[in-house]
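Subject: sequence -> structure tokens, single chain

Hey, anyone have a minute? Need the predicted structure for the following. Not urgent.
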Amino acid sequence: MGEVSYGQLELESYQKIAEAIGDANPILDVGCGEGELANFLAARLGKVLCGIDISSAKLGKAREAAKARGISQSVRFMEGDASHLDFLADESFGAVVSVYTLHELDDPHKALKELWRVLEAKGKLVVVDFVKGGKAERLWGERYYTPQEMESMLHLAGFSRADIEYVRDDVVFVSSVKI
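Reply:
Had a minute. Here:
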């Protein structure tokens, strides 16, 4: 794949996520940061979203962006840790999305079990992340996973076989269903 700007890659990923989640509603955006994806899905598709992140500063920017776009009634941003979602009810989301977050989690297995818990039966999980051995790992030295490791983690958490597609040489798009 040729060189793609980060902004263009984000837009393409967001559109791909929108297609993957289909008519699922509401949506949980895990590691939502400044709310770009949540606000995109709310504005573009009319989805109801809940974004969680551990950074209150980023959540403040997410709320400001939602207000500026006139979609504050459709999105809610909450401070929280993906491994401890006890403030969210079981089976309360039609889809869960996570963009560039899996590698940031201290305990991805525990977080994936929590995502499984809050997802409705047959709900869709979509994960976009950098892969082990890619450019991101060389740049930032963080812990990344191979597509096979991601699929194994999802399976252990109770998700169906994962569909994995490279969206760039070091970024994968993973989708799975709660079984």
